[in-house]
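Q:
My hope is that you can spare some time for a protein that puzzles me. I hope you can help me see how the letters and the C-alpha cells relate. Thank you; the sequence and its C-alpha cells follow:
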Amino acid sequence: MNHSRRTTRTLLLPVMAFVATTAACAPIKDDYPDYSGGADYDNDLTIDLCQDAVVDKIKRQRGYSADVQFGTPDIYQASKKIDTVEGKGTIRESRRYTHFDYSCDVNIRSDRVLHADIDYRHSTTPQRLVRICHDSVRERAQNEIGPRAQVTFQKTQTKPLSSRTTKISGEYDISHNNRTGKMRYSCKVDTKHHRLDSLTTRWIEPLSGPAINYAERCHQAVTKKVERNGGRKVNIRSTQRTRSKNKLDISGKATFKQDKQKKHIEYACHINTRKGRLESVNYRFKPDQNSGGTGATNNRHIESLCKNALARHAHSLYEPGEGNIFFQGIKSAKYTKTKTGMLVKGKVSLRVAGIPQQRAFTCNYSRAADKIIGVNITYP
C-alpha cells in the first residue's frame, strides 16, 4: 500500500512538473497588441533598424550627400518589447567631419523604430556656427539687393544664450554697382542641429550713390508704361526730387500723343535708395488740358474711346443661334457728367449673323485715368 502510494506519487510528479512548466511558458495577457516577432529576434536586426533611421534623419536634416559612419553600438533591453540602441557616429561632408551621439528605441515585436535621437553637441565649434550665420546673411543680402552684392564681415561676436542656442552678431560692409553701405546683423543658431533659428539686419549707413541715374530710370519706366497703354512720342517736361530716409520720390510733368491728340500727364516714381531699386511708377492725366478747352472736343475724345471699347465688347459677345456680333458704330449718344468722369448712354448699330440691329449701350469714362472703365451692350 505504501509502495503503491510512492508509485502513484512518482507517476504524478512528472505530470505536475509538465503542467507547471506549461503554465510558466503560457503567454501573459497584457495591454500590448499581439505582434508576430519576438523570440527569434536578433540584435543585428535591431541595430540595423536603428542605424537606418538615424541615417535617414541625418540626410533629411543636412542633405543627402552626407556620408554617415557608425562605431560599435551598445544595446540593452529597456522592457519586454523594447530594445534601446546607443552609439556614436561620424558625418563626412565636403572634407569636414561631424561627430554625433545617437539613441533609438526599437519595438522588437513589430520591427519598428519608435524614435531616433541625434545629438551633434560634440561637433559644435564657434567657427561652424559663425559660418552658418554668415552664409544666411550673405544669401539675404543677395536676395534683397542683388545677386552681385558683395558682403565683407568686419566684427563678429559669439555669445551662448543657452545649451542649445548661440547668438552671433556683428557688422559687415556691402557693395553693389559701385555703391557701398554698412549693416548690422544678429543671428540665433541652434547648436544641436546646426541650423539658423532667426536673423535680423539693419542699416548703419545706407547704400551711397548719385541720384541722377534714378531720374533716368524713372523716365524710362514712365515711357514704357505710357507706350504699353497705347501712347507714343513721350516727352518729359519737368523733373522734381524729394528725399526722405532711404527713399527718393521723382515726379514731374510729361506729354505724349494718342489717337492724334496730345495728352498731358503728371508722373511719380518711388525709389528705395537703400536697396537701389525702383519700387513703383504711376502717372495720371490732366483732364483740363487733355480736353482741348471745349466740351465738344472732350466729348469727341470720349466718344472715340467708347467706340473702341464697344467694338471689343461686341466682338466678345456670342448668343446661341445668332452667331458672331459685329460693331458698326454709335447711332446716338447722351453724355452725363459724374463725379469721376462721364457716363455715356445711347444706341449702337450691330450686325448679328448678317442682320442689322440696334441695341442700347452704356460707357463709363474715368477722367483721372482718361479711359473707359466699364462698357455694356443690352437689348433695346
In short: Residues 295-378 form a domain with the Nuclear Transport Factor 2; Chain: A, fold (CATH 3.10.450). DSSP finds six helices and 19 strands in the chain. The two ends are 129 Å apart (CA to CA). The longest helix spans residues 2-25.
